[in-house]
Amino acid sequence: MPDVHTESETRIERGVPCGQGKLLDIYRREPAGGGPAPTVLLWHGVGPDERDVLETLAVQTAGYGLTVVVPDWRSDAPDGGRAHLLGSLDFTRERATGLGGLADDAIVLAGWSRGGRSAAAIGVRPGAVGGWRPLGVVCLGAAYTRLTPVTGGSPIEDLAATGAAPVPFWLVHGTEDATVPVAASREFAALLARRGWPVRLEEQPTDHAGVIGTEYDPSARRCVPATGGPAVAAGRLSARMIAEAAGATGVPGATRAPGAGQEPSG
Question: What is the CATH number of the domain that holds 241?
Fold first, then answer.
């Protein structure tokens, strides 16, 4: 039985079964109101079953009036996590109307690190998911030249080969990231722009964990919520970028999509 409780103004439904033996959490603003809105599917990084690491970001994103779905998945599974990732996408698509109130073409696909890489690959190679297109794609601290389990190729390879119509991308990367250097997002943003895909790149003075509003705790061997410094601001910016991708109201200066072929900022 899923555990439902409210933290401040966010209602969190924890431990919802989503197939493949995995669980997910659903974040909603309380009170709901505001009418239908896009749903966000947010994937964590390489650490197995670490959906809790994204709680700070999910709460902040839900604060814009969005429903945020955060599933577990395991990169150490025999298929690299492919079935887990695609299973959570199927779950979200099948329930989109009940989650955010809109159809499955109003889902923002977002992810951090390896989760962001898989989101990018699906964004540029829709054939891997039966032709489905997200409303927008948000990638946080991701690498784009490495292979993904969802397509078998890298996002850069998939982009070079795609004939799909563009969908808008938002990228956020820390300039102090020693795990995935910021050059990765700069390269991918430039390639998207050259091919006429709407893209916005935001760079923040933080590290790999900081772009989701966390810091790495060596004793716990996992990321924990940041309590100060650039990581707090970077996490808030990432939530804002996800909200912009969803076209959420209440985001100052928000637009539905970055301009086609827009030069990356940062």
Answer: 3.40.50.1820
